[in-house]
Design goal:
By secondary structure, this protein is α+β, with helices and mostly antiparallel strands. It has one domain. Helices cover 32% and strands 19% of the residues. A 3-stranded antiparallel sheet has the order 2-1-3, sandwiched between helices. The longest helix is centred in the N-terminal third of the chain and has 9 residues. It starts with a helix and ends in an 18-residue tail after the last strand.
Length: 77
């Protein structure tokens, strides 16, 4: 699940860092659907047009910090 999105991120990591550093991007398939300041904004925008589980929200950091495993609650108020 989401292998295509992860592969796209890995292949375009440098480009994404230059363009979206410090933001969260929504990736669906092999396309960036949007860039947002918070996970909540990214999720709210993504579910308007896509089903949960069909996209990835990825924080864009200046280093490989994103390789650290993070556990988050998907419930936003």
């Amino acid at each position: 699940m989401l292998e295509k999105e992860q592969a796209y991120f890995e292949a375009h990591k440098t480009e994404l860092r230059e363009k979206y550093s410090g933001r969260r991007v929504v990736i669906a398939g092999e396309e960036v659907k949007g860039a947002y300041d918070t996970d909540a904004e990214a999720y709210a925008a993504a579910v308007k047009t896509m089903k949960p589980g069909s996209f990835m929200i990825k924080p864009i950091t200046p280093t490989d910090e994103e390789a650290v495993q993070r556990y988050m609650n998907r419930v936003y108020a």
